Amino acid sequence: MSWSNPVPAVGIVCLKGHDVLLVRRGTAPRQGEWSLPGGRIEPGERAVDAALRELREETSVQAEVIGLVDVVDGLFAEMDRHYVLIDYVAIWTSGVPAAGDDAAEAEFFGLELAMQMVGWSETRRVIQKAAEMRDNRQSLRRC
Hints:
Shape: globular
Helix content: 25-40%
Distance between the termini: 53 Å
Number of strands: 7
Radius of gyration: 14 Å
CATH topology: Nucleoside Triphosphate Pyrophosphohydrolase
Oligomer: single chain
Order of helices and strands: EEEEHEEEHH
Mean pLDDT: 93
Largest sheet: 7 strands, mixed
Low-confidence stretches: none
CATH superfamily: Nucleoside Triphosphate Pyrophosphohydrolase
């Protein structure tokens, strides 16, 4: 197998109350699967700016980033692709989900249902960690 150079990309866990915004991927990799909004970082673009841009392009939703969740290696042997995925957590601020760009669908789902819908274990782990970060942030605000 001959791997391509790693591609820097972003994902964003957008939370609205106890709901998570998912997109059904319209292109490879993982075409047809439910996942997080995200995509490639453009040359000269900051990673966090790329995450917010991808969120707007794929879902028409606006959000405020509250933190970095994790950096994940997406190794897709069937495409000889290696993505370095920088995942952020954000809180929804406005917009109604509408699929755009390379997303076939976009919708908020309750956390439990979202976890069942997402096929890749790394994405489920990132969503869970993002929800915990949000909960910890809310606990700190109450102190």
